[in-house]
Fold this sequence. Notes:
single chain; alpha+beta; 4 helices; 7 strands; signal; Lipoprotein
Amino acid sequence: xxxxxxxxxxxxxxxxxxxxxxxxxxxxxxxxxxxxxxxxxxxxxxxxxxxxxxxxxxxxxxxxxxxxxxxxxxxxxxxxxxxxxxxxxxxxxxxxxxxxxxxxxxxxxxxxxxxxxxxxxxxxxxxxxxxx
Length: 132
């Protein structure tokens, strides 16, 4: 079982990234693909996100629960996680896209960035934009 606080935080942040009036849920839809990339730590991708113009005004590490990951949030709409076991990414993406809200993720080889505008960071961070 995943840590309730991590799952609740992740679900709340995915929901907060939803567009008003849109209902998501369903199969993940890869929309924009950049260069495959991986990051050694959550801080390294956070720093790359900020260097690419992302806002991270109040970094807070969060408990990844049973996931073998490092995770943190920049604010109420941006969560970043780096997974030691990249196989867990499929579960994370599936759970996010099954919500009754539109999902906005940028997913790399071992990381996920949940932010309202993931397409803005593909060139700098790599990965694939996934909506659902």
